[in-house]
Amino acid sequence: MKHDFVVIGANGIQGRIAARDLLESGFTVLLCGLDKWRIDHLIARDNAEFAHIDLRDLGEARRVIAKSTARIVVNCAIDDYNFEVTKLCLELGRHYIDLDSEERMTYDQFALSPGFKAKGLTAITGCGSTPGISNVMLRHVRPQFDKIHTVKVGFAWDCNMERFVIPFSLDTIQWEFREKAKVLRDGHFVEKAPEECQEIFDHLSIGRRRSVFVKHIEHHTFCEYLKDVGVKNITVYASFPEHSHRTLKTLVELGLLNKEPILVDGRPVRPLDVTAEVLRRLPFPDGYSEKENIWLKVYGSKNRRAKAIEMDAVAETMAGWEDETCNVDTGMPASIIAQMIYDGRIAERGLFSPEFVVPPKPFFEELGKRGVIVYENRVPINLPSETSGS
What's the pLDDT tens digit per position in 170-192? Predict the structure, then answer.
């Protein structure tokens, strides 16, 4: 079978969503992962195949990608190997996207941009919800300002019952709960522990929630994108339902999300891997649903007058996608951006973060078709019957 896309980590939460969206859009997809857990129904489709990939064995990954005819690799695996997979795609002449990388790795990826450009290839890092949707929202509002001094960005989610469901990658969670965030304050980066945050926001569709600071790459890519308009303050926030926050914090404090191996019966085992395997087998609660708000607040001036714009992207549990909860707002953007590279709507060559190259209007339109509604100052701008934007 000839493939249009390769999806790495297709057996994970976001990879499963991205792969399904690509398949349902009519493309042929090679689903790659450590196992076929919860993706048998996708592999059974006529336009799908499966291949085993363990990114600890990059030789195996190279052979699988090289054998595939796919022009674009969608990397939804944990970000530990993002840089190596990016280099591999450059070597093999494939377009590339991923969901996120940590700070050092992102800058290492950016250093590969001239190589991608020389080969006529596009690579985009951070193509999920935030980073991802939030970056494109920033691109949307930037022309409406002469100067921008402050950007606040984050996510807030809620659910209809106090039952623990893994919100997203446990690897990402342990990072966000343990690491100090780099916050841009008055033009300088300072470190803040997550719980130092005392801010409360009134989120569209969610309501009032206390936030925590989180270590994200948006601090850095937004700073680069806005450096010529005077940005001085950038902060990234997260807000969880109280019961979920308590559970996740407990898992972190007990060391159950640690990546450092421990010896069990003489064999090295990562607590994170064991916890992930246990939790992903929890039965999904009947009637459970979620909603999430990816939000952005931008402050500056236009024609020397103060100006502020709020952007929101709201996702809810959707019919037919119940088991994926509100994670659709992370997996679907990856599929959309990959398709925009495939059909030429993103034509720039090199390696970028989304705010530099993803056109807002068609991106928002695609989100709207999938039920993720984007708001500007709390007015919807991408309802399928009345798409608009810039």
Answer: 888 888 898 999 999 999 999 99
SS3 for 278?
helix
DSSP string, 1-63: ---SEEEETTTSHHHHHHHHHHHHTT--EEEEES--TTTHHHHTSTTEEEEE--TT-HHHHHH
Six-digit token string for 383:
């309802």
Measured in degrees and rounded to the nearest 5, phi and psi for residue 61 equal -60, -40
Helix (H) or strand (E) holding 140, with range, is: helix 133-141
Contacts of 379 (CB under 8 A, 6+ apart): none
In the chain, the largest separation of any two C-alpha atoms, in whole Å, equals 68
Options 1.10.760.10, 3.30.360.10, 3.40.50.1820, 3.40.50.300; CATH for 133-329+366-380 is 3.30.360.10
Angle at CA 154, nearest 5°, toward 193 and 326?
120
Q: Is the pTM of this model over 0.85?
A: yes
Contact 350, 95 (CB under 8 A): no
**49-89 pLDDT, tens per residue?**
999 999 999 999 999 999 999 999 999 998 899 999 999 99
103-110 vs 218-225: helix axis angle to the nearest 10?
40
Residues comprising the chain, all counted:
390
CA gap 187, 195 in Å, rounded = 22
What is the arrangement of strands in the sheet containing 122-125, beginning at the earlier edge strand?
A: 48-52, 29-33, 5-8, 72-75, 95-98, 122-125, 350-352
